[in-house]
Amino acid sequence: MDATRRPPGLDHPMVPKLMRLYSQAHVWVYQKTGGRLGNKWRVGAAFPRGVPVLLLTTIGRKSGQPKTTPLLYLADGERIIIVGSQGGMRKHPQWYLNLTQNADVTVQTGSRVRQMRARIADAQEHAALWPRLVALYADFATYQAWTDRAIPVVILDPTP
Questions:
Q1: N or C: more exposed end of the chain, with fewer CB within 10 A?
Q2: In angstroms, what is the C-alpha Rg of the chain?
């Protein structure tokens, strides 16, 4: 981790709360518009061209209730690749922890909703996918530099 580059406010207790509020608003807009609004992220390295956004619904590992999160993604044929970066936070995102307990997820890309099965990329897959993910959104590399944890790459496979 490059502690000299880690933003000092990143560990403030309000940051996860603000991220959660932003995510809830993003999900609401995305769902209400069938993905016409909120389907591109144009912040940081994504400006101005934008990076595609999907909605991932997992089942809460404690609550048993559906939890929906907006995430950047890389389309890879019928597969979808997502990243558990959480902006370089020190802990894995809740959606990631949820899918480690229940790999069956729902994914919305634009107006298309489908069932998929999540799996964590193994070391070889991670090594192959990481450069493509950084090419998609260069800030992923920055987030990795800000944290000691290995940022996971998750592969979403279509279910039959």
A1: C
A2: 15
In a domain, 2, yes or no: no
Q: What is the domain extent for residue 127?
A: 8-158
Q: What confidence tens digit (pLDDT) does each residue in 11-70 have?
A: 787 877 888 888 899 999 999 999 999 999 988 888 888 999 999 999 999 999 999 999
Q: For the chain, what is the domain count?
A: 1
Instruction: Give the CA distances from residue 43 to residues 11, 28, 46, 52, 77, in Å, rounded to whole numbers and listed in that order.
Output: 20, 19, 5, 12, 25
pTM, entire model: 0.89
Burial class (CB in 10 A: 0-12, 13-18, 19+), 126: middle
Whether the CB-CB separation of 104 and 159 falls below 8 Å is answered with yes
Which residue bears the tokens 């809460």?
Answer: 60
Please tell me the total number of residues recorded for the chain in this structure: 160
| Residue 73 counted as domain residue | yes
